[in-house]
Amino acid sequence: MTRGVTGLLAVGGGIGVLAVQLLAVAGLLASAPTGAATVSEHSMGFAFDSPRGYVVCRERAGDNRDMPGEFFLRDGVPGRTMPSLLLEAVGPAAPLSRQLRGPLGADHDTALAQVRYSGLNLCGGTGPRALIVGDSIVAMRIVGVGRGRRLFEGVVRYVNVLVPSDTLEMKHVEGYAPFIGVELTRSGGTLPVLIHPECRYIDDASMPEWFRVPAEQLARTVRWR
Question: Which domain range does residue 35 map to?
Fold first, then answer.
C-alpha cells in the first residue's frame, strides 16, 4: 500500500514510551489467545485471529470501496499502547531484478520473491519535491514455521529521492520499516501475507520488539479458510 508523506508517523517519545510499549507487549502475550476473534477474507480464502483487545477494520480505497485482503488493526484497550498493524495479502511477484536485492535472494523461491518485492513497496510516499522509495531490504531471515508455513522477518531501508531527477539522486535515508511475512501455500499457488506497523519508520535497521511480538503472534494465526 502506498501512503503519502503526510500520513507517515514519526518515531519518538524516548525510553518512557518504549517501556510502556514493552509492558503492553508482555500483557498481550500473557493474555493471548483468550478473547481473540477470527476474521475471514472470503474473496481470497484466508483467515486470521486478531490479538485480544484489537479492533479490526477493512482498509478502504479513495472511493470508499473495501480493499480485498487488506485490514487495519488498532489497539482498542484504553490506556494500552500497542502498535497499530496493517495486514495485507499481496499479489503475483514482479520482476526478480527488483525483488532480489539484499539478503536471502533465491530466484527459485517464489514465495520469498513475492514477500521481498512487496516489502520494498509497502511504505513509499510522495511529497511536493521528493519521492520516498524502498531502496533495499537490509535485513531478512526466516524466523519460524507455523502450521506448515514459513514466517519471514525483514527490514526495508527507505530513501528520499529528489524529484524531478533523471538520475534519481539520493537525498538522504528517510528511515527503516520492519515487516513480517507469512507464506500460505497450497496446490492452487502461493499467497504471501505481510504485516507491518502502519508505515511507521524507525531510526535503524533493527527489528523492534514492540512490533515483532504482536506481529509474529498475529502472523502465526494466518491460514487458509
Answer: 5-224
Element spanning 132, H or E: strand 130-146
Report whether 50 contacts 40 (CB < 8 A). no
Q: Which helix (H) or strand (E) segment is 30 a member of?
A: helix 14-31
Terminal Cα distance for the chain, rounded: 24
Residue-wise pLDDT for 81-93, tens only, equals 888 999 998 765 4
Angle made by CA atoms 80, 86, 91, in degrees to the nearest 5: 165
| Cα 12–chain centre separation | 20
What is the total count of domains within the chain?
1
On whether the CB atoms of residues 222 and 48 are closer than 8 A, the answer is yes
Give the C-alpha separation, 54 to 221, whole Å. 14
- Looking at the DSSP bridge assignments, the partners of residue 58 are 71
Q: What CA–CA distance (Å, rounded) separates 99 from 114?
A: 7
| pLDDT per residue as tens digits for the range 162-215 | 665 555 555 677 789 999 988 888 776 778 899 998 767 888 888 999 999 999
Give the CATH number of the domain where residue 190 resides. 3.40.1000
Can you give the pTM of this predicted structure? 0.73
